Amino acid sequence: MQVKPLKGQHHVSALTANAKSNYEFYTKVLGLRLVKKTVNQDDTSVYHLFYADERGNPGTDLTFFEIPNAGRTYYGTNSISGTSLRVPSDKSLSYWEKRFKEFDVEHDEISHESGRATLHFRDAEGQRLILVSDEQNSGVAGGKPWKKSPIPAEYAIYGLGPIHLTVSQTNHTTTILTDVLGFKEKRRYTSTNAEVIVYETGEGGTGGEVHLETRSDLPKERPGRGSVHHVAFRVENEEELMKWVQKLKQLRIPNSGFVERYYFKSLYFREPNGILFELATDGPGFEGDEPFETLGESLALPPYLEDKRESIEARLKPLDTKE
Question: Which residues are in the VOC domain (predicted)?
Answer without folding.
Answer: 8-134, 159-282
